[in-house]
């Protein structure tokens, strides 16, 4: 700490979801010590990243393609348990096993230019002055609500996926779900079991994809999002370019008419929604399953945004400021992408530290064991794996 109470260290990781924990794991493996070489800050109350806030009916069995964090498998989880509990417990065990010492709840309000080539990270527990920042703040904190004429006149309830409580609350009601993504279809299929009626409204015709989700297909989808980020455009979600998986549940819902889609309405009325061609739908609820945007407002003082609205990044490194790395952003906004981005960001940060004289005490560049000395991973969830 210097005399002004600002804590100097090498790296601040903002966010302890999949991406932040992966980065923290790799920082530890290259020899940086938590609270000395790096610190992980998260404003959520508990371990689990955004998963801790997901609705109880999103059970672990319904989560597709959740990749384990590097170095510790998630095994033996009950598929009927809420994913918020399963993944919360897994992340907690992970943080404990690798001794990552996440500081929470700590709000990061701004990252700005410091002195001597350092950044200043302003937080609810004081100011840090790192040489590099790994930003892993996800999207959950920035739900996207589109605006439509008349929205404020609606007498019913409007809510977003981020506040979705599960389907039971909608018993006997007429519910409009807006949005053609995975969340929208999941909400509809659940709510249709309880509601008096449901309506699905999407901007474009939803595309359902038959057949298995191959690695090749996944790579192509990631490449499309990557290209947008490279051009400085706001990233689209990886899921938005993969199409909707055609599962047995989706097939059944389509047969029952639950996934019959209406085009986007033109306005919202006090009692529902209306189209210019005279059609109206009356409803008590509008559920906006319209996605999320990157939660990067705290980076605004660094002026990283391009005219296109996005932050241009090469791999994970922000083009306008090579001290800032974005993980879980754009092409790495999936559990597997977040894992890889964490590792790539640490490699890049270690190069930067070597150039700027940081990384004191760290074996810069080579990964060492990781894990708390003398500690075994928790039996239910942990089995060390190689790589990551
Ligand atoms: C409903 C839903 C289901 C999904 N299912 C899947 C799936 O099955 N498979 C898959 O691969 N992906 C899935 N995803 C995508 C998934 O969110 C990502 O794969 C991954 O979990 C995101 O990890 P992350 O670390 O980037 O973000 P998060 O898990 O959102 O973590 C970000 C962390 O940053 C913290 N934070 C944010 N802002 C600040 C701040 N200013 N100061 C301090 N802390 C801050 C938050 O508290 C949070 O803990 C799903 C997404 C949604 C919305």
Automatic annotation (TrEMBL):
InterPro entries: Auxin_biosynth/cation_transpt (IPR050982), FAD/NAD-bd_sf (IPR036188). Keywords: Oxidoreductase. This is Oxidoreductase. Residues 376-388 have a biased composition (Low complexity). GO terms for molecular function: flavin adenine dinucleotide binding; monooxygenase activity. Residues 354-388 are annotated as: Disordered. Residues 356-372 have a biased composition (Gly residues).
